[in-house]
Specification:
Elements: H1 3-20, E1 53-57, H2 63-70, E2 74-79, H3 82-91, E3 98-102, H4 105-111, E4 115-121, H5 129-139, E5 140-153, E6 167-172, E7 179-184, H6 189-198, E8 202-210, E9 219-226, H7 234-238
Parallel strand pairs: 1-2, 1-4, 2-3, 4-5
Antiparallel strand pairs: 5-9, 6-7, 8-9
The structure holds S-adenosylmethionine (SAM).
């Protein structure tokens, strides 16, 4: 992991510890959200998941993963933060079809058997796309899908970067005024598309997830891509190389 990725995981560990110490019960998902409740597409974009081998990348407390496991998917839920993992273990002990893993997502992707579907609810932008996307592409079965949400415009109205570089964003501990800064990749959709294609995936779609509150500029994007069934030999000659957009 890069130092900025390690730092982000450490901040999430503080967050998880804070949440473990609170006496509140996060409700189960009443409807699937890709980060902002009641905004954007729902679970339908994943299609029928029954019987599929699925990975939730940056799963946190594991509510999305548990939801898919109850629908018959065989779900691994990976999170690098020990306290976030601890929250998931406490909430979903011995849940059928759900395997909770505490690890850096890239380390897990390099060792795991290939997946039919990998998704992430706002976890992927804490990892360097040049590190995680090639590992993701390799960890999908031919024809397998990647679906992830990513911050697009933060709550101060700052839009995405037009170069592939991490920038500081603020995480507030719920119920307090304590804020922590950590780096993440908040990229323009054209950059995500290029990075996905450069990693060997076929780009499928990008969908806006805007806050339903007109006074909040917060906005995410939902990206979908697929590992080709077969790699066409022509791709090698048009390979542009990862890093073309670095700055
Ligand atoms: C914004 S939270 C999303 C949690 C969950 N997906 C949800 O929607 O509730 C991001 C999660 O990504 C995890 N994370 C950050 N870096 C990671 C890495 N390198 N590998 C795996 N998980 C990571 C954090 O620990 C955190 O739990």
């Amino acid at each position: 992991m890069l130092d900025i990725e390690k730092h982000a995981a450490e901040i999430w560990t503080l967050y998880g510890r804070h949440q473990l110490g609170r006496t509140f019960d996060l409700p189960e998902l009443d409807s699937w959200a890709w980060d902002i409740p009641q905004a954007g597409p729902g679970i339908d974009v994943l299609g029928d998941v029954a019987g599929l081998r699925v990975l939730d990348l940056g799963a946190g407390v594991g509510r999305h993963a548990a939801h898919l496991a109850a629908l018959g998917a065989h779900v691994s839920a990976v999170d690098a933060s020990p306290t976030q993992h601890q929250r998931a273990l406490a909430r979903y002990p011995d849940t059928p079809n759900l395997h909770l893993v505490c690890a850096d997502a890239v380390d897990h992707l390099r060792e795991a058997a290939p997946y039919d579907l990998i998704y992430s609810v706002s976890g992927l932008p804490f990892l360097d796309p040049h590190r995680v996307l090639p590992a993701l592409a390799n960890a999908l079965k031919p024809g397998g899908r990647l679906v992830f949400s990513a911050l697009h415009t933060n709550s101060h109205g700052v839009g995405p970067s037009d170069c592939v570089a991490a920038r500081p964003e603020v995480l507030r501990l719920p119920g307090t005024d304590t804020e922590h800064s950590m780096h993440m990749w908040v990229l323009a959709p054209a950059l995500w598309e290029d990075l996905l294609v450069e990693s060997g995936l076929t780009f499928e779609s990008v969908t806006a997830i805007d806050s339903p509150r007109s006074d909040r500029p917060l906005s995410y994007r939902l990206y979908a891509a697929r590992r080709p069934e077969r790699v066409h030999s022509a791709r090698c000659s048009t390979w542009r190389g990862v890093g073309a957009h670095g700055c």
